[in-house]
Amino acid sequence: MPFRPRPAVSGAVLAAAAVLLCPAAAQARPAVPAGPGWSAAPAPGRGAAPSAQDRPYFYLEGAPGTVLADRLSLGNPTRRPVTVRLRGTGGGTGGGAGSWLRFAAGQVTVPPRTRASVPFTVTVPRDAALGDHPGTITATGGPARHGGPAVRRTVPVHLRVAGPALSALTAEDVSVRRRGSAAVIHYTLVNRGNTVLTPRLAVRADGLLGPVLRRAAHTLPLTLEPGQRARLTADWPDPPALDAVDLRLTVTAGGGAHDAATASYTAVPWGVAAGAALVPVAGAAGLLSVRRRRRRRRGDEGDERRDGGGGSGGGNERPAPPAALPAAVATALAAALVLAPSAAGSARAASPAGTASLSGTARAASPAEAPGGRPTVQLSRKEAGKGGTLTVSGRGWRPKALLTLLICGQNMIGGTNSCANGDGRAVTTDAHGTFRKRLPVAEPPKPCPCVVHVATVTGAAAAADAAFKVAGHPVAPLPRERTGGRLAVLSPPRLAGSSGLLTWFGAPPQRELTVTVGNLGSAPARNPVFQVGTSHGVFAPQWEEQQWRGTVPPGKKVQVKLPVELAAGAHGDYLVSLEYGGKVLAEQPWGVGRPWGVTLFWVLLCVVVPTAVFRIGMAVVDRVRPRRTAGHARPRIRTRRTTSAGDRAALPWFTPDTAPSTTTSTERPTSKGSA
User: What is the value of pTM for the model shown?
Assistant: First the structure.
């Protein structure tokens, strides 16, 4: 067959085009880029070069507050040095692996035909939410000297923050405000746990005449990150025009999070109120007019009787005009006009809103899919030495799920820092949720007891462990369980109790601080010691240690009650603070009334003491004042006392009939009466 130069040239051109297009295809598989140029991939174990069987991504798992480590492999098969700049990207507003990445060197120069292993760490914040936090390692570089284009490589990082999940949701600051003929319900939702929540809201309102609003639980169009606070509103299109309403909001979320908050709403339209105020006035005016008419009618009848002489009254009798009826009818109509809008609004709010909310609940309650069983893992052998292989199989996993397989020491306490990450493998489950994968046996960085850890990389979190023994690897007892935990307040604090009579007279005010706390850490909190502080005005708080007797397990919540006492005679605005582990958990204001009994005591003291001193002083003066002697006594003027007949008759041994005659008199008789 003769040689044809044109087809050969065309084949060479096609081969060159395929070589030029190779880097684009290589970016789809970041672990082993095809074609010439430098590469970036997760570093495999044993210092070997990355291959197609190695992990194509980084998988890191740890609890909040841990520092996870791994290595990035940079290979330069070319004849020129390559300078690569490294940075972490991704994470979004809620944080992620990209924003928590720290490299040993942000810029690395890889010599020709050399492979560099760059260590990096991922620091998980203590307040990080549980779940997946994806990120990306972006490597940008080119020839160390000018003359070549820059090339970008990306390696995905899948970070899973593990730990006890604790869901807590509170509803706060509930109020109702009028807006024209409608009303708006204002409320605040706070995620106080460590999981992402999608809240559901139910509204209930009861008036004086019965229910006025019913809204079944419905899902709100938002998600709350841990610690996030959202100020929301809900429309109330037809509130009652005149009523006193008790409003109750109930919020729920996944993980058993629930809370309820109440508020009062009084609807008083000024026009209707003014009309209602005029009803008694109109009634009084009608009654006064009726009485005047009766008086006039009685006067006219009296005049007719006087004029007619008391004839037959059959023709003169006239039916009394129903004057009292219009006033009563007017009062009844006014009352009906006042109460009609309230009853109509109550009927409208109770019927349509309740029907719509019930239909929405029926739609939301239908499950999308039935929950599956718990995933399992089986090993082909229970023990193997370094350099060997074992087959890992499993079932009950989510179909088409990406899994990672790792050999970890110390039962994976501490996350992937205890695992042989470089020798991990990735596998995808089939349509039935099963898999089968060969895993090389490597020595983990921590001593045994060891496990084979299988976990999902994306989607819903699922994991399973199987005990495995690495032959020849050291064995050590598991570390002791730490105590202390990481407590957080899951509900607004409140002060329970009241002041007694002794407090009114200056006794120390006492209350009981009640708060719900949850353990967000991985260790139990046994008999935690809290710091309770009280501050007044601009003064620094005075702290007092108080130990709560009990244990808060990881991922659980309990109600803690601690006594609070102020100094005797304290009054004014105080602030009660609760601290644990050097962090203020909650603050609650406390308004203490003035002890008026003490004021009354001082007022009475200011009145009684001067009076008593005056009386005592007068008594002392009477005692100390000298008495007059007989020589200096005043001469007394003796007066002659005459005894009258009435005095003598009053003597006990005489009676008026037998008293002696009083003919003897010192008066001289007159001339006519003398003998």
Answer: 0.60
